[in-house]
């Protein structure tokens, strides 16, 4: 049977490739972005207790009401924004599903969506499946945005721009000048949506995370995605949420109800119990310690580490080590030196290769010690 693929250019993701390679060669996996340390004991105990109760049937489509209320309260606490949990919040099967659902709901055939590369690999396929056209704008080799190029990418067909702040893979965060530039562009295009991917919103360090929640010019036209998986390092739970104005959320919920209907009940109820007492203000310092520990131990290596102000990734140039392209170098590093990483060119649609790789430092201290010992011997 012949199949006319809707995504003919796509194969197995680099994350799967590198993790499999790490397993095959018994390499330390600093590639895929998931922590290898335990979740908070209180959250674990809450989950264990909830799982024994009669909580295993469907919850409401939009989310478990006490969890929606807890999310509403957290948004008010951290962003001083009042949202309507009944009409502006939706619990999703991870932020990836939130992003896919929003794009399917709002993008039609012929619409253009501006994407800043390097970008998370779920953005462009979702746009294509909706019949839209991704318009990619590359950041420079230090992951800075040229807003003149972004402005030039907008047209009468532009319907959405997707931003990721704090940024994966670079760990950069938007500064005030970036937000102002974005607002200036969107002032010229009043019918364009902002899809603001903020899954690392509580993982930032020396520079603050400026959320679309806090911007009067942005919040009423924004779809903001967040991730419990990233915030509480429960990535396998695949739970996130999306915030959007009521008239936008109506359309998002139409797609959501036929995509997943609702998200698993046990994890929602456990999070509803745990979230009100969780101190998210400490998350940045928790990961800053890990970043600093990794960076300090890498000082004697030949890698040139770039600044990371958010997420749990740090990027590095390897020009002093090899002249290989970043995919070949990443595979060599995994198979020959025992540490798996991610090449950053795979986040660029045009495969622009700046000889830069990404490390995930959301690991146990012993893992980081073993990895940096190997990396510093190269």
Element-level helix/strand string: HEHHEHEHEHEHEEHEHHHEEHEEEH
- Biggest beta sheet attributes: 7 strands, mixed
Q: Which CATH-level-2 architecture of the largest domain?
A: 3-Layer(aba) Sandwich
CATH class of the largest domain: Alpha Beta
Written description of the protein model:
The chain is built from 13 helices and 13 strands. With 378 residues, it is an alpha/beta fold. The protein has two domains: 14-32 and 281-375, Aspartate Aminotransferase, domain 1, CATH 3.90.1150.10; 57-277, Aspartate Aminotransferase, domain 2, CATH 3.40.640.10. Strands 2-8-7-6-5-3-4 form a seven-stranded mixed sheet, with helices on both faces. Strands 9-10-13-12 form a four-stranded antiparallel sheet. Strands 1-11 form a two-stranded parallel ribbon. Strand 5 (158-164), helix 7 (176-188) and strand 6 form a beta-alpha-beta unit. Helix 3 packs across helix 10 and helix 4 runs parallel beside helix 5. It is globular, with a radius of gyration of 21 Å. It starts with 13 loop residues before the first helix and ends with a helix. The model has no long low-confidence stretch (mean pLDDT 96).
List keywords for this structure.
15% strand, alpha/beta, single chain, 378 residues, 4-stranded antiparallel β-sheet, 2 domains, globular, Aspartate Aminotransferase, domain 2, 7-stranded mixed β-sheet, Aspartate Aminotransferase, domain 1
What's a quick, concise take on this entry?
This protein has 378 residues and is α/β, with parallel strands linked by helices.
């Amino acid at each position: 049977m012949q199949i006319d693929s809707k995504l003919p250019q796509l194969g197995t993701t680099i994350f799967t490739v590198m993790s499999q390679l790490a397993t095959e060669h018994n390499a330390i996996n600093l590639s895929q972005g998931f922590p290898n340390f335990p979740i908070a004991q209180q959250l674990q105990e809450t989950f264990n207790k909830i799982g024994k109760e009669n909580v295993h049937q469907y919850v409401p489509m939009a989310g478990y009401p006490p969890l929606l209320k807890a999310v509403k309260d957290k948004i008010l606490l951290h962003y001083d924004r009042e949202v309507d949990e009944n009409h502006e919040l939706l619990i999703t099967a991870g932020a990836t599903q939130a992003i896919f659902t929003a794009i399917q709901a709002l993008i039609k055939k012929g619409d253009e969506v501006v994407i800043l590369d390097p970008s998370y690999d779920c953005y462009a396929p979702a746009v294509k499946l909706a019949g839209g056209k991704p318009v990619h704008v590359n950041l420079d080799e230090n992951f800075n945005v040229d807003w003149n190029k972004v402005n030039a990418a907008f047209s009468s067909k532009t319907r959405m721009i997707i931003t990721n702040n704090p940024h994966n893979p670079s760990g950069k965060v938007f500064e005030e000048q970036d937000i102002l530039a974005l607002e200036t562009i969107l002032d010229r295009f009043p019918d364009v949506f902002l899809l603001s991917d903020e899954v690392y919103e509580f993982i930032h360090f020396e520079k603050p995370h400026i959320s679309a929640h806090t911007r009067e010019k942005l919040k009423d036209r924004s779809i903001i995605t967040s991730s419990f998986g990233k915030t509480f390092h429960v990535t396998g739970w695949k739970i996130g949420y999306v915030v959007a104005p009521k008239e936008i959320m109506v359309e998002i919920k139409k797609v959501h109800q036929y995509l997943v209907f609702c998200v698993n009940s046990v994890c929602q109820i456990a999070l509803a119990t745990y979230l009100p007492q969780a101190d998210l203000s400490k998350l940045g310092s928790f990961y800053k310690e890990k970043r600093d520990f990794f960076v300090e131990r890498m000082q004697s290596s030949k890698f040139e580490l770039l600044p990371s102000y958010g997420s749990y990734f740090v990027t590095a140039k390897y020009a002093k080590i090899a002249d290989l392209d970043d995919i070949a170098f990443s595979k060599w590093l995994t198979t020959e030196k025992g540490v798996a990483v991610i090449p950053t060119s795979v986040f660029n649609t045009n495969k622009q290769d700046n000889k830069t790789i990404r490390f995930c430092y959301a690991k146990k201290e012993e893992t980081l010690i073993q990895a940096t010992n190997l990396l510093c011997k190269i």
